[in-house]
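Project standup — Tuesday

K.O.: blocked on the structure for the chain from last sprint. Re-posting the sequence here as requested.
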Amino acid sequence: MAVDLSSFDFLVVPGRENSPPDHWQSHWLGAFPNSTRLIQANWSRPDAQAWIARLGAAVESAPRRVVLVGHSVGVATIVRWSAGAPPELTRKVAAAFLAAPTNVDDPDPSFALVRSFAPMPLRALPFPALVAASRDDPRVTFQQARQFADVWGADFADVGELGHIGSAARLGLWPAGLLLLGGLLAKI
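H.V.: unblocked you, prediction finished:
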Protein backbone atom coordinates (compact mmCIF):
# COMPACT_ATOMS: atom_id res chain seq x y z
CA MET A 1 0.00 0.00 0.00
CA ALA A 2 1.39 3.41 -0.98
CA VAL A 3 1.78 6.12 1.63
CA ASP A 4 -0.42 9.17 1.05
CA LEU A 5 2.12 11.99 1.42
CA SER A 6 -0.63 14.61 1.36
CA SER A 7 -1.78 13.44 4.79
CA PHE A 8 1.39 14.84 6.41
CA ASP A 9 3.09 18.19 6.87
CA PHE A 10 6.82 17.83 6.29
CA LEU A 11 8.79 20.10 8.61
CA VAL A 12 12.43 20.49 7.61
CA VAL A 13 14.65 21.22 10.61
CA PRO A 14 18.06 22.42 9.37
CA GLY A 15 21.26 22.66 11.34
CA ARG A 16 23.64 25.60 11.77
CA GLU A 17 23.70 28.11 8.93
CA ASN A 18 20.41 26.75 7.57
CA SER A 19 20.35 24.58 4.45
CA PRO A 20 21.47 26.46 1.33
CA PRO A 21 19.75 25.91 -2.04
CA ASP A 22 22.09 23.04 -2.99
CA HIS A 23 21.42 21.10 0.25
CA TRP A 24 19.23 17.99 0.00
CA GLN A 25 16.82 19.46 2.57
CA SER A 26 16.17 22.42 0.27
CA HIS A 27 15.60 20.05 -2.65
CA TRP A 28 13.12 18.07 -0.55
CA LEU A 29 11.26 21.29 0.25
CA GLY A 30 10.80 21.73 -3.48
CA ALA A 31 9.70 18.12 -3.91
CA PHE A 32 6.99 18.07 -1.23
CA PRO A 33 4.33 20.77 -1.68
CA ASN A 34 3.16 20.29 1.92
CA SER A 35 6.56 21.09 3.41
CA THR A 36 8.01 24.03 5.30
CA ARG A 37 11.38 24.99 6.71
CA LEU A 38 11.65 25.70 10.42
CA ILE A 39 13.11 29.22 10.51
CA GLN A 40 15.42 30.20 13.36
CA ALA A 41 16.28 33.72 14.51
CA ASN A 42 20.03 33.08 14.57
CA TRP A 43 21.46 30.43 12.26
CA SER A 44 25.10 31.12 13.18
CA ARG A 45 24.82 30.83 16.95
CA PRO A 46 22.16 28.25 17.72
CA ASP A 47 20.50 28.54 21.09
CA ALA A 48 18.88 25.29 22.20
CA GLN A 49 16.07 26.92 24.16
CA ALA A 50 15.06 29.22 21.29
CA TRP A 51 15.37 26.54 18.60
CA ILE A 52 13.38 24.00 20.62
CA ALA A 53 10.64 26.56 21.35
CA ARG A 54 10.26 27.34 17.64
CA LEU A 55 10.02 23.63 16.83
CA GLY A 56 7.34 23.15 19.47
CA ALA A 57 5.33 26.08 18.12
CA ALA A 58 5.59 24.75 14.55
CA VAL A 59 4.41 21.27 15.54
CA GLU A 60 1.57 22.71 17.59
CA SER A 61 0.34 24.91 14.73
CA ALA A 62 0.63 22.24 12.03
CA PRO A 63 -2.81 21.34 10.63
CA ARG A 64 -1.90 17.67 10.02
CA ARG A 65 0.45 15.10 11.51
CA VAL A 66 4.06 16.12 11.05
CA VAL A 67 7.05 14.34 9.57
CA LEU A 68 10.22 15.93 10.93
CA VAL A 69 13.24 16.01 8.61
CA GLY A 70 16.29 16.94 10.67
CA HIS A 71 19.93 17.44 9.80
CA SER A 72 22.96 18.01 12.06
CA VAL A 73 22.09 20.13 15.11
CA GLY A 74 18.51 20.08 13.78
CA VAL A 75 18.52 16.46 14.95
CA ALA A 76 19.53 17.58 18.45
CA THR A 77 16.70 20.14 18.32
CA ILE A 78 14.19 17.39 17.52
CA VAL A 79 15.49 14.98 20.16
CA ARG A 80 15.68 17.64 22.89
CA TRP A 81 12.19 18.92 22.02
CA SER A 82 10.70 15.42 22.11
CA ALA A 83 12.26 14.75 25.52
CA GLY A 84 10.41 17.68 27.10
CA ALA A 85 7.30 18.15 24.99
CA PRO A 86 3.88 17.16 26.29
CA PRO A 87 2.50 13.87 24.91
CA GLU A 88 -0.34 15.62 23.07
CA LEU A 89 2.29 17.39 20.93
CA THR A 90 4.63 14.45 20.39
CA ARG A 91 1.60 12.42 19.21
CA LYS A 92 1.30 14.91 16.32
CA VAL A 93 4.67 13.68 15.02
CA ALA A 94 4.16 10.79 12.62
CA ALA A 95 7.89 10.14 12.17
CA ALA A 96 11.35 11.72 12.20
CA PHE A 97 14.08 11.38 9.58
CA LEU A 98 17.34 12.21 11.40
CA ALA A 99 20.40 12.71 9.19
CA ALA A 100 23.93 13.25 10.54
CA PRO A 101 23.16 13.81 14.24
CA THR A 102 25.83 16.16 15.59
CA ASN A 103 27.39 14.86 18.80
CA VAL A 104 26.67 17.96 20.91
CA ASP A 105 28.41 16.33 23.89
CA ASP A 106 31.80 16.20 22.13
CA PRO A 107 34.29 18.17 24.29
CA ASP A 108 36.29 19.36 21.25
CA PRO A 109 36.30 23.21 21.17
CA SER A 110 34.97 23.14 17.60
CA PHE A 111 31.63 21.97 19.04
CA ALA A 112 31.29 24.99 21.36
CA LEU A 113 28.61 26.66 19.22
CA VAL A 114 26.24 23.71 19.74
CA ARG A 115 27.04 23.03 23.38
CA SER A 116 23.72 24.52 24.55
CA PHE A 117 22.06 21.39 23.12
CA ALA A 118 24.02 19.12 25.49
CA PRO A 119 23.46 16.70 26.98
CA MET A 120 21.91 14.74 24.14
CA PRO A 121 18.85 12.90 25.50
CA LEU A 122 19.48 9.16 25.54
CA ARG A 123 16.02 7.63 25.73
CA ALA A 124 13.48 6.26 23.29
CA LEU A 125 11.75 8.73 21.01
CA PRO A 126 7.93 8.76 21.25
CA PHE A 127 7.53 8.36 17.47
CA PRO A 128 9.08 6.21 14.70
CA ALA A 129 12.46 7.49 13.55
CA LEU A 130 15.38 6.67 11.30
CA VAL A 131 18.98 7.82 11.78
CA ALA A 132 20.96 8.18 8.54
CA ALA A 133 24.70 8.16 9.27
CA SER A 134 27.83 8.59 7.21
CA ARG A 135 30.96 6.60 7.95
CA ASP A 136 33.20 9.70 7.65
CA ASP A 137 31.10 12.36 9.37
CA PRO A 138 33.35 14.87 11.19
CA ARG A 139 30.52 15.88 13.57
CA VAL A 140 29.70 12.40 14.91
CA THR A 141 31.46 9.07 14.75
CA PHE A 142 29.67 6.27 12.95
CA GLN A 143 29.63 4.27 16.18
CA GLN A 144 28.12 7.19 18.14
CA ALA A 145 25.42 7.69 15.50
CA ARG A 146 24.54 3.99 15.76
CA GLN A 147 24.40 4.29 19.56
CA PHE A 148 22.08 7.28 19.25
CA ALA A 149 19.78 5.24 16.99
CA ASP A 150 19.80 2.34 19.45
CA VAL A 151 18.89 4.41 22.52
CA TRP A 152 16.31 6.46 20.59
CA GLY A 153 14.66 3.25 19.36
CA ALA A 154 15.24 4.41 15.79
CA ASP A 155 16.07 2.45 12.66
CA PHE A 156 19.62 2.96 11.41
CA ALA A 157 20.87 3.49 7.87
CA ASP A 158 24.53 3.37 6.81
CA VAL A 159 24.72 5.83 3.90
CA GLY A 160 28.39 5.20 3.14
CA GLU A 161 30.94 7.99 3.07
CA LEU A 162 29.03 11.24 2.63
CA GLY A 163 30.83 13.40 5.20
CA HIS A 164 28.30 15.40 7.20
CA ILE A 165 25.58 14.64 4.62
CA GLY A 166 25.31 18.34 3.78
CA SER A 167 25.88 20.57 0.77
CA ALA A 168 29.50 19.46 0.37
CA ALA A 169 28.27 15.94 -0.46
CA ARG A 170 26.44 17.34 -3.53
CA LEU A 171 23.50 15.02 -3.09
CA GLY A 172 20.94 17.12 -4.93
CA LEU A 173 17.52 15.56 -4.36
CA TRP A 174 19.30 12.63 -2.63
CA PRO A 175 17.25 9.79 -4.14
CA ALA A 176 18.75 7.24 -1.72
CA GLY A 177 17.60 9.41 1.19
CA LEU A 178 14.10 9.63 -0.29
CA LEU A 179 14.00 5.83 -0.42
CA LEU A 180 14.98 5.72 3.26
CA LEU A 181 12.27 8.26 4.07
CA GLY A 182 9.75 6.18 2.12
CA GLY A 183 10.71 3.09 4.12
CA LEU A 184 10.21 5.02 7.36
CA LEU A 185 6.82 6.36 6.27
CA ALA A 186 5.69 2.87 5.23
CA LYS A 187 5.99 1.85 8.91
CA ILE A 188 3.45 4.41 10.10
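K.O.: great, moving the ticket to review. The mean pLDDT is 96. The two ends are 12 Å apart (CA to CA).
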